[in-house]
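Need the bound structure for prephenic acid, inputs here:
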Amino acid sequence: MITNMVEQPADAETASGPASGPRGGTGADAQTGTDAPEAAERIAEIRERIDDIDNALIELWRERAALSQEIGATRLASGGTRLVLARERKILERFREALGADGTQLALLLLRAGRGPL
Ligand SMILES: O=C(O)C(=O)C[C@]1(C(=O)O)C=C[C@@H](O)C=C1
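Answer from helper R.:
Posting the output first, comments after.
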């Protein structure tokens, strides 16, 4: 797990110099990463939208997984297969076309959340 996501500015103190505060003496706020009030305000504003997007993604992720599980249960109960690889290939291709290599990784995680690991 990543426990320290705070990056230091380019001119941050290094191990060779003394650190005068918790951020190595840069003065940058630990939450926003800047000590400039206008920048901090804009960052807080953008973060509100990011939090909305993240919450929507979490909701959609859960909904997709539930729908995928329902399809799987319906198919198995009817004597069908657990997986339909042709469908998975189409989904992987759609994500790859839209988002590149990261899209493929994302689609693999989405598929696993629904049907479980291969
Ligand atoms: O579309 C289906 O047939 C599903 O079972 C859903 C889903 C998916 O999560 O998108 C899951 C497993 C299948 O192998 C293909 C796709």
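Comments: DSSP finds three helices and no strands in the chain. The two ends are 24 Å apart (CA to CA).
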